[in-house]
Every structure is written in C-alpha cells, then in structure tokens.
Amino acid sequence: MKNQLNRRDFIKLAGLMPLSILAPRAGQMLGSPPLSGQNKNVLVVVFDAFSARHVSMYGYQRDTMPNLARLAERAVVYHNHYAGGSFTTPGTASLLTGTLPWTHRAFEPKARVAARYVTRNFFSAFQDYYRIAYTHNGWANILLEQFHAQMNELVPWDTLLLRPYFGFVLDLFKKDIDNALVAWTRNVDIKHYGYSYSLFFSQFYEVLRDQQYTRLEKQFPRGIPSTGFADNDFLLETATDWIGKKLPHLPQPFFGYFHFLPPHGPYNTPLEFIGKFGSDGLKPIDKPFDIFTEGKTYGQLLEKRNEYDEFLLYVDREFGRLFDYLETSGLLENSWVVFTSDHGEMFERGIDGHSTDALYQPLIRVPLLIFEPGRKTGMDIYAPTSAVDVLPTLSHVTGHNIPDWTEGVLLPPYAPTDPDPNRRIYMVKANQNDGSAALTRASTAIIKGHYKLLYYFGYADRGMDELIKLFDIDADPEELVDLYPTQKDIADELLKELKTKLDEVNKPYL
Amino acid sequence: MSIINSKPQLYTRQGLWSLFLMCVFPLHFWTLILVFRDLSWLIDRSNLWDAITVASYGMIFAFAESLLVFLIAMLLGFLVPKYWDQKHRIALLSSLILVTALWAMTSQLFVLLNITLPAWFINFFVQQSHPLRALYEVGLVLVTPTVLIPTYMILKSDKVLQVVLDFMDRITLLSVFYLLFDVIGLIIVVIRNV
Asked: Which residue, A259, A299, B44, B75, could crosslink A135 as a Cys pair with Cβ 3.0–4.6 Å?
C-alpha cells in the first residue's frame, strides 16, 4: 500500500511534533510502558564504490579515514565484509533486499529487482517505522523508486544536487532520467570532454555555468563533485547538513536509507585534501595484467589511486560531521547506525574503477560498521560476512521478525550462535544477463574459510568459455598466487558447490 | 499580425522554411556524427535500446537548437537592408550559419582528432604581454574574412548566389531527412517516458 506524505500532510504532522515530544512522558505518567529497548531508529548510510582495501583500520597504509577510525572505537567493525555485486545495481539491490543478485535478478545497469522483491526489502520489513530514503546515484534511485510504495518518503533525487540549469530535463523526462541526462551531458558538457553534440548552445552554456561556478571551482580544483552528468553536481556537505537537520524532526522510530555518491568517481575532492597522499611515496604492488585488464599503466593507476584516497578524506570528514549531528541531536543514543557501501573500487592489474568483470578483493570487500545504541566500546569481527546479512540483522535487533525470504544470516555478535566456519559467501556480476534468463555469462565468486574461488563463464569474446582461479585470501590477501593449478582438489570442491548453486538459481529460468 | 504578413518583402513562407532547413543541416549533421561515435560506449554502458534512446534525445536537442538558431537568424535578417531581395537575404543568412557552424566544428575537431597546435604558434601567444587578447585578435583576423568574403560574393556575383542557392536546394533534401529522424526520435522518447 502506498503511504506517502504530501506536503500538506507533512505540515499537519509537523504541527503535532510538540505533542509527539511530550507524548512518551505523558504515557509514562499514565503508566504505559516506555518504548521498547529494541524499538530504535535505524539509519543505513551508504557511500558508493567504497573499497575496504583503502581504509586505514582495515590495514591500508594511508590514513584515509581518521574520523571513522576514531568512531570505530564505539562500533562493531566487520573486517571481512563482502558486497553482493561489484557495481551499483546488484550491490544496492542485495543490500536492500537481503538477497543475492541471482535471486533479486537486478543484474544489468539500471535494472530493477524481480517483481516479488518490490514488497520484500528493508522498507517492507520496517512497515511500522517511518521509512525515508535518498540517493545521489541515479541507478540506485531506480531501485528506490521501485520500492517507493513501501516508503513514507522518497526524497527526490535532485533535491541535493546543485542543478543550476537542467531542472527541465528532470521534469520533462521523469521516467527516463538516466538516458535523458546522458544525452543532455553529451549535448552541453563541452568543458569536460572538449566536444559536444551541440555546436552553439554548448558554448553559451559554458559561459553561463562558469559564472555560477567560479567560487565553487576554486574550492574544488579537480571539478565539483558530480554524478558524472552535466549539471548533476553536488556538495557532500550539503547532503550532510540536510540530513543532519532533517533526521531529528522525523517521526520516530524511523528507518532511513541514505546512499551518497562519493567516493564514486569522478574523484573531485576539495582543495584542502589535494596532495595529501600524492607525494607520500606509496608504492602499491605492481600486479600482473588480468584477462579483464583495461591496459592502464602503473603510473595511471597510481594517479587514480591517489585521487581516490584523497576523495576518501572528504567522505571521512562528512561522515564525521553526520556523526556529530546524530550525537548532538541525541539520535545516536536511540539509533542503530550502519556505515557500509554497495561495492568497491580497484586500481591494479591495469584496471581502474569498477566497470570491470573481474571480482578481485578491492571490488567486493567493503566496509561495514554498526553503531549500536549506547555502545561505548568497539568490537572486531573477522568472520566473513555479506551485504545480505544486514537486513535480517537489523530486523532482528529492532524486534522485527526476520523475513523468511532473505538469504542472509544474523551478523555476529547479534546471532545466538558463533559464526559457521563453513559458511559460503557468494558474489555475482552478470551485467549483460537479462534478469529473466538463466545465467549464461557471469563472474561469480565463492568464499569459504580462507579460500576464494573465482569462476568466470560465458566470456567467449575474451577467448575463454570459463576461467577458474583460487586464492588463499588469508595467506595471500593481494591475490597474487593462483592456487588453482596446485590445489585442484580444493578448487574442484568449491567449484562443485558453486555450480550446484548456479544450477539451483538457474532452474526457474531454464 | 504575423511577421510574414506584415513584412512580405522580408520573408515568404518558402524562404523561412529554406532558412530553417539550413539551420537544421549542420546541427543535425554534427549530432549524428558524434552519436555514431558514442554508440559503442553507450551500448557498453547499458544496452542498444538505451543507446538508441540517447541518440533520440540528441536529435530532439538538435531540433530545439535548430529552432533557436533559426529564430536568431531570422531576427538578424531584419538588420539586412530592405532593398536586398529575399534570395540574397536567405543566401546570406544561410552562408553565415554554415560558416559559423564550420568554425564551431573546427574548434571541436581539434579535441576529437587530438590535434595540437604547433609549438611556434602557442609560443607566439605566450610571448605576448596579453596572450588572451592576442588570441582573440588572431581569431578575429581569421574569422572575419570567412564571413565577409562570402557576404561580398553573394551580393556582388549572381553566379555565386546561384551556387549558394543550388547548394541550399541539395541540403534541403538532407535536412528533411534529418527532420524525419527527429520525428522517430520523438516517438522513441515519448515511448520511454510514458
């Protein structure tokens, strides 16, 4: 059932805010029970394309996240957490539905989940909460729009964009925003590319835009943070302030999902962070080119890595500020706060970004921190965990039934038993596979214990029908030694398990 | 009262249509070239249907820009002395549109073809006390003849005028074809947005 507040309803509700503040006390005075200890707010904060391999507290040489490291002393920190996919659509859908891509079926860019998951997600699991969501990311927004009927408030995507001139594109082409924005960008963004579809208007547009952006461009010499489309610029601090000020005024308990684009490229960090890492002498391991290599040189990858790491400092500063907002408003004492990402990013083997079909650790290992209401000491969890575990865990700790359709398990330390040492964690990327068809071309991975098996199939255009790699990710976290030729028995066992799983998930689509 | 009725000596419907088609030609031509150039990465980015949709938006934007350029050109026509007949007026405005479009294309081609200006040329500007002003001055020196010479030729030579009008006739057919693409693009965009 659609339960969306319009502006008039919201104003009416806002008028009741003083009453809502007094109500619990009045209730106590009348003898009604206080709010249950489990009935807390939930805030899921996602930073896009955030690789755990670039976080200092996970062992990275650079101090990219000083604020997060400080705050982690009060959080449960998951050291081996994996995304469900390796780019926005499958990764976000896995987090939101608690199911793997081969189950929710959002394989392709801009895809939607299978119809049955429209009512099987975080927002449906928290029906008794006020549910609000926002994202900068257009592809993630497609999923949020799909779940819109399960929310009280989906904050429009353009609310937190600077959007000086492209408002009409958003208004006119509401149902096909992504394509319309690509076309608009290619038409007008001559400054970025040096050429554009438009011969005249693009020149005029640049003059107009430059006038408006002069001040900001001094603050962001690499460019203003952007979703990659023309006029889709934004400031993360604006989003932090907006959310920090909005949350205390939401009806409680609330479930909030906020998905920010940084550190997703372009890595346009503010002036204050430029050059912080560029000359620190870091020399990442020069890994051999992969079959999926994009041919980037070591120097090019290092330059991108530096920019990414400097962009992380911006993310860290803003997460710190958001945390301050939560603390100052008192929400922290009454909220579960989750910090995570939808997928990672990589700068090795000739590949940068996350458009690759490879599934190496930097692409799939993402941060996960859970700030529990009232927790004052940190805890480190080293058992492998998955994005699909977040939904059942938050359902459980807030007193909701664990949905039977989720594929995740309760995260430690909230599970009643110790983690299963034989648990299998899966990752899937099948961005050219129709969601309604069996998987015929995909990158898949299974992690069990300290082994990780990569199984690529259907890449005939790359001269292979299938490719298998095996790594010991404890002994060889950089994934330099492929054990497949020497430990075939282990590889065969994992491959058999993975193929059995693939047969199972493909069965309904054959 | 319409401009056409009140100023019959300035434009006829046929004249305006020809002028509009002359605006359509370079803008659509350029959009199509770049759309075809983008096609492979657009398909890689998502799929063929999305790539076709992006191309459709591109055509619609090109149509809108053509309309704007046409309006500006038409208004510029009012600055042309009234004793020029319509043929001269349309030929002149069309040539101005083409020349301006060619210069705009040239500026983008430098990036598209990775052409770098010779070092001596860049050094010349660097050594000036006001490099930007010098750049504009050289630009003016280059552009002005390309505007003035066609203007002069069209006005003074009936042969040149006829060549321009013949050229316009041929281009007109191509422009109508581009407008057909716009209609197809519009249908696709409507389908994607309903």
From this structure: A259
